[in-house]
């Protein structure tokens, strides 16, 4: 079976497993399945890229570490570790593509799309931040939350710039992966603080898709030309 098809199958099965866990089990069990998901997809990335994409592999490890701290998210110190390590994971992805992030040359349609994406992400972040601020009393934790949000928005912008400059499947996969992870974060916090279990289905689906996209990107990044006008 081709790697692409195998990764698609694994992603599909993991989404089903996560949905079943959220439906039938409690929040703590669903968090363990989240850990299983990032472990499997991180292993796929390591196998696909033959351990060559070290920054991406470090990012996967940091995502895994974050999910362990998510098990104790109700404790403030775990929140500190979660936001700090999750921000580092995004920065390592940024290190991986930094040499190809340049000033984008958007056409009108791309400008509209780019502005819409940033505005939507910023608005969602603002809404979650307003909820978070009401629930959290520690100033340091609130500051770290805002830093994490800014890094997330910056990562989406960087992925969009990478897409514009590289123009191939790898750049599209990376952008959609980062966007999925960013939206997953926002939805997860919203679901947690407003206690709406149904939102976890969308959050987990986007999370698994985002991680699978990173695994797929690790293979495409090395094998595709920088400019590929037709894909």
TrEMBL record:
Keywords: Membrane, Transmembrane, Transmembrane helix. It is found in: Membrane. It is a multi-pass membrane protein. The chain crosses the membrane at residues 31-48, 55-73, 79-97, 109-131, 143-163, 170-193. Belongs to the TMEM86 family. This is Lysoplasmalogenase family protein. It comes from Autumnicola lenta.
């Amino acid at each position: 079976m081709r790697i692409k098809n195998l990764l698609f199958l694994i992603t599909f099965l993991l989404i089903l497993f996560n949905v079943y866990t959220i439906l039938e089990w409690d929040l703590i069990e669903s968090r363990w399945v989240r850990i299983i998901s990032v472990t499997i997809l991180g292993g796929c990335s390591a196998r696909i890229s033959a351990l060559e994409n070290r920054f991406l592999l470090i990012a996967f490890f940091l995502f895994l570490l974050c999910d362990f701290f998510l098990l104790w998210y109700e404790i403030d110190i775990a929140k500190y570790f979660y936001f700090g390590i999750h921000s580092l994971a995004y920065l390592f992805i940024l290190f991986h593509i930094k040499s190809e992030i340049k000033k984008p040359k958007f056409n009108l349609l791309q400008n509209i799309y780019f502005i819409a994406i940033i505005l939507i992400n910023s608005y969602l972040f603002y809404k979650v931040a307003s909820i978070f601020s009401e629930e959290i009393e520690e100033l340091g934790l609130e500051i770290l939350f805002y830093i994490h949000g800014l890094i997330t928005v910056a990562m989406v912008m960087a992925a969009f710039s990478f897409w514009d400059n590289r123009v191939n499947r790898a750049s599209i996969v990376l952008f959609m992966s980062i966007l999925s992870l960013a939206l997953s974060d926002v939805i997860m916090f919203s679901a947690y603080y407003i206690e709406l279990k149904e939102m976890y289905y969308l959050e987990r689906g986007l999370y698994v898709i985002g991680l699978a996209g990173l695994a797929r990107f690790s293979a495409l990044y090395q094998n595709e030309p920088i400019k590929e006008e037709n894909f």
